[in-house]
Amino acid sequence: xxxxxxxxxxxxxxxxxxxxxxxxxxxxxxxxxxxxxxxxxxxxxxxxxxxxxxxxxxxxxxxxxxxxxxxxxxxxxxxxxxxxxxxxxxxxxxxxxxxxxxxxxxxxxxxxxxxxxxxxxxxxxxxxxxxxxxxxxxxxxxxxxxxxxxxxxxxxxxxxxxxxxxxxxxxxxxxxxxxxxxxxxxxxxxxxxxxxxxxxxxxxxxxxxxxxxxxxxxxxxxxxxxxxxxxxxxxxxxxxxxxxxxxxxxxxxxxxxxxxxxxxxxxxxxxxxxxxxxxxxxxxxxxxxxxxxxxxxxxxxxxxxxxxxxxxxxxxxxxxxxxxxxxxxxxxxxxxxxxxxxxxxxxxxxxxxxxxxxxxxxxxxxxxxxxxxxxxxxxxxxxxxxxxxxxxxxxxxxxxxxxxxxxxxxxxxxxxxxxxxxxxxxxxxxxxxxxxxxxxxxxxxxxxxxxxxxxxxxxxxxxxxxxxxxxxxxxxxxxxxxxxxxxxxxxxxxxxxxxxxxxxxxxxxxxxxxxxxxxxxxxxxxxxxxxxxxxxx
Length: 537
Known about the structure:
By secondary structure, this protein is mainly beta. Helix content is about 0%, strand content about 50%.
């Protein structure tokens, strides 16, 4: 029998609880505990929360704030230097008769001396007066620095997306680049434009058009990709082209990227939903993630994944989540379909996806509106089994009675190599509340630990010969240790009986295991803790 040795050390973390008696009800994964409210001052309606996490685990969030009573709105930016446990205000502004239809944030920099936060937004002063801008903040001391980009528009700016290559810089950027994508109603056509700084956000002096559409451009997404075979690096975009300006309208999904360098023109767009006849013209809300790391994928390309919401019957009542991926030649239209959630029993909406370079996985979240749950899934970089996703948890949100339009987001915390989630819950008087939870946060403020065992870390990670898990049982109990691979195949399923209170230890030999990501779970008395580790020989 293959054996693994895993040590789980005890971790007590304080958190705000949310949902009262619903807290922790129905959660399938006990490593998530009480959800954190980002802003205890809930005077305004909070919407459209965004999250970006720095190299050292410092977290930055932004959300729109709306006061319908005074017809005023704005944006609030908050930050946390303790992995999301507590939050402070970086900036907040609200103005009468002005709206902020779209914004995005990204943090960049590999040391605290140069850590910067970029906030892109559009301020609508009137139907013919829009201001598109990028603000720059010192992310270490939370101070506003400058406004390196500003452009006045006389038509609607529809959506904005930001990205940076700071973790794997392009050869044409120093010390890193920051890119912005925005969709713009430039009558009689809509256009998609690209703005770039190659000098660490000092100057945004490169701008060109990605595409012009005869129909409506709305939601867009932007990511950066790089691999050893494509060290130049490129930015990748996905967007929707909608036939109607109705908020409920469906349409097509397109994608493109820079030709050879980040400051090159963009390739001719590819329509990707057409590869699935049952999805053609029925998609919206695309999100894109691309591989960025120091290894090539199995096809010597850059793995690219786009996820989108599909209106399965075209009647607005049965949505599912589809994926479209390309792992081959990045210059070719080698797109295939990935099934993610196509159950007719659930109505699933608004997906979001990110790439994790530590474990070489795609991370996916979406909104299960039927069951009021926010699931979190993963799949490997190579997408060798694109229709088989590992569900880390079917519900990281505590309360299943307060979701209407959560628009969930997932981000990797590079300091811990674990994920954090943000979304919007519904509070009193139809006011949204920005929420956060993370797979490394476990116990709420004033909460007694509910699990009979405490969780922790696996080492060495990566493991080459043996790995180590130790867990502290609060009471004597039986337990089951289970390990599965990235495809969902059970590698180990071992029952351990009569474990005394205190430390429990198991060992497993991984010398014969394939390289890759594995997930281990400890189950006891219907409670479950799950984490992941890498085998690398």
